[in-house]
Structures are given as structure tokens and as C-alpha cells.
Design brief:
It contains 9 helices and no strands. The protein has 152 residues and is mostly helical. The mean pLDDT is 91.
Length: 152
């Protein structure tokens, strides 16, 4: 690997990480798409990881916070992290940073979309259940959200 190539990779990594957190594999893919060879990228990327400039656990925490703000449940957030190839250890580190009442969040998401009243019939209940399931909430959280008329 040439010195110029290494500088270019470092510069590109610095630029990407200055905007937002990225996962290790995401950075690897982005650099490969820019025409760099994997054997040139990996040593530089490993140095960034060892210096804690790039961190999969910070990336997981960012996605965790973002998902909560979007009204997504734990299952949906975990699936996004799995798509970014974040290992379970780093994903769990992000989840342990913030305390969330998933039942409360499911209820808030349901109220925002459908209002506070419980579903009027089985068809409406099924529609709300599908919506909350798609958002990544568990069946218990969904049942809680659909049966509570008042935020408790």
C-alpha cells in the first residue's frame, strides 16, 4: 500500500466519521465502493477502531436512540443493527445505555397514529396490531397499548 493511498483512506474515514457514527462493515463497504482495496482499508480501519475513533457500540447506541425517537420497538432496532452487521455484544452495549419503558412507547406510538381510544372492532384491532408489530413491539407491549385507554 502506498503512503498516498493510506492518507486518502485516512482522510475519507475522517470525513465520513465527522458527519456521523458508522459501523465497521459500513465503512469498509463505503471505502470499497470508492475504489479502495480491502487489504489497504483494513489496517487503517483497525487503527481507527483501536484508537476508539470508530466504535460499533457507539454506532449501535446512535441507532438505538434514533429508533426510539422514531417510535420503533426493540425488535425493529435490533433488526436494523443486524443488517449493519453489528455483533450482539456491541448491540447490547447500546441497549444498556438508555432505560426505555417499551410498553409506554408502544402506547404513545399507537395514540399518535390511531388516537387514545381502544379499537372499535376486530378489523381495527388487527390493523393496529399489524402496525405496532411492524414497528418492532412485542405482543405483550401491543396488547398493553391496545387495551389502555388512559396513559398509565
Amino acid at each position: 500500500m502506498t503512503e498516498d493511498n493510506q492518507k486518502l483512506i485516512r482522510h475519507t474515514l475522517t470525513h465520513l466519521l465527522s458527519r456521523r457514527e458508522h459501523g465497521f462493515n459500513e465503512l469498509l463497504l463505503k471505502l470499497e465502493q470508492k475504489g479502495f482495496e480491502q487489504e489497504d482499508i483494513l489496517p487503517v480501519l483497525e487503527k481507527f477502531k483501536q484508537a476508539n475513533i470508530q466504535s460499533d457500540s457507539r454506532f449501535a447506541e446512535m441507532h438505538y436512540r434514533s429508533g426510539i425517537n422514531k417510535g420503533q420497538g426493540k425488535t425493529r432496532i435490533k433488526e436494523v443493527l443486524k443488517q449493519h452487521k453489528i455483533d450482539d455484544c456491541d448491540a447490547l452495549a447500546g441497549f444498556s445505555e438508555i432505560e426505555v419503558d417499551w410498553f409506554e412507547l408502544a402506547w404513545v406510538v399507537k395514540c399518535k397514529k390511531f388516537g387514545e381510544l381502544p379499537p372499535k372492532d376486530a378489523k381495527e384491532k388487527a390493523k393496529q396490531q399489524r402496525f405496532l408489530l411492524y414497528r418492532g413491539f412485542s405482543y405483550e407491549q401491543i396488547e398493553h397499548a391496545l387495551t389502555n385507554e388512559v396513559n398509565s
